[in-house]
């Protein structure tokens, strides 16, 4: 069993520390800053094995160099972003498998938010670290990709087992949920989930992890086939990718 620690940093970022107690190996996913990670490592007496970056944005790689310098860890990141990932040691592409102790981690390429974005799937552990591709009830903005690319990327994640736990890189859930309700006001799963989310956020609790199953029921970017959603955004009888693009466009100005 892996242990996952969730470290809230900056305004709304999460850094995840993944610890394998059997091998003693540890990965830090998207370290926006080094100090919060170093503090936990010191406290626990752990030594960092890997940094895993999903993409090149500063709020995901900001701690790379300091962590590398102070812990000697290996920085793993998308190969296509090698020119813009500080300290990259090992570039990965779609389908690559890396090992954290005996745990295999499959790399899935998910362009859309950025051209090089990847997510890390701990296959046997049912865990997905998805950076800024998939959020709880949302998805990343299209900075370097088309709606079509993002849609294809999200189809790959949709196909993962329903029980897969989703660890995204930002706490955007409450705003995402408010938007989701505007496009699917009668979705009962969504209404019920928002009650839970609002209670969690009132106590400043993280809303991660989610699951693929929960996202299928409530995330508008997974629900382009919902008739209610299609009707609300006036995209009935359109291609699913076009419905998705319209929902993404509406969210941009929400
Ligand atoms: Zn980003
Ligand atoms: Fe980000």
Residue windows where pLDDT falls under 50 for at least 5 positions? none
Strand content bin: 15-25%
- Total DSSP helices: 9
Q: Which compounds are bound in this model? A: zinc ion, fe (iii) ion
| CATH structural fold name | Metallo-beta-lactamase, Chain A
The N- and C-terminal alpha carbons lie at a distance of: 40 Å
CATH top level assignment: Alpha Beta
- Identify the overall geometry: globular
How helix-rich are the residues, as a percent range?
25-40%
Task: Report on the architecture of this protein.
This protein has 254 residues and is α/β, with parallel strands linked by helices. The protein has a single domain, classed as 4-Layer Sandwich (Metallo-beta-lactamase, Chain A). It is 34% helix and 24% strand. It is built from nine helices and 14 strands. Strands 1-2-3-4-5-6 form a six-stranded mixed β-sheet, covered by helices on one side. α5 runs antiparallel to α6. The model has no long low-confidence stretch (mean pLDDT 98). The structure holds zinc ion (ZN) and fe (iii) ion. The site of zinc ion has 4 residues, from loops.
């Amino acid at each position: 069993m892996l242990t996952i620690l969730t470290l809230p940093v900056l305004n709304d970022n999460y850094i995840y520390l993944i610890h394998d107690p059997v091998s003693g190996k540890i990965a830090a996913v998207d370290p926006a800053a080094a100090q919060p990670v170093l503090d936990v490592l010191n406290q626990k007496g752990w030594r960092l094995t890997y940094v895993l970056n999903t993409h090149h944005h500063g709020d995901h790689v900001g701690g790379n160099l300091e962590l590398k310098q102070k812990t000697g860890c290996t920085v793993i990141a998308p190969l296509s972003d090698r020119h813009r990932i500080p300290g990259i040691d090992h570039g990965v592409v779609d389908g690559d498998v890396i090992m954290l102790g005996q745990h295999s981690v499959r790399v899935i390429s998910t362009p859309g938010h950025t051209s090089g974005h990847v997510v890390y799937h701990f296959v046997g552990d049912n865990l997905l670290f998805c950076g800024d591709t998939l959020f709880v009830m949302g998805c990343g903005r299209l900075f370097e990709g088309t709606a079509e690319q993002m849609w294809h990327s999200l189809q790959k994640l949709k196909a993962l087992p329903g029980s897969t736990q989703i660890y995204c890189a930002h706490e955007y859930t409450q705003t995402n949920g408010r938007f989701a309700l505007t496009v699917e006001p009668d979705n009962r799963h969504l209404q019920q989930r928002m009650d839970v989310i609002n209670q969690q956020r009132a106590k400043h609790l993280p809303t991660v992890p989610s699951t693929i199953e929960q996202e299928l029921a409530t995330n508008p970017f997974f629900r382009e086939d919902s008739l209610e959603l299609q009707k609300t955004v006036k995209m009935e009888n359109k291609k699913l990718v076009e419905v998705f693009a319209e929902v993404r466009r509406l969210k941009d100005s929400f």
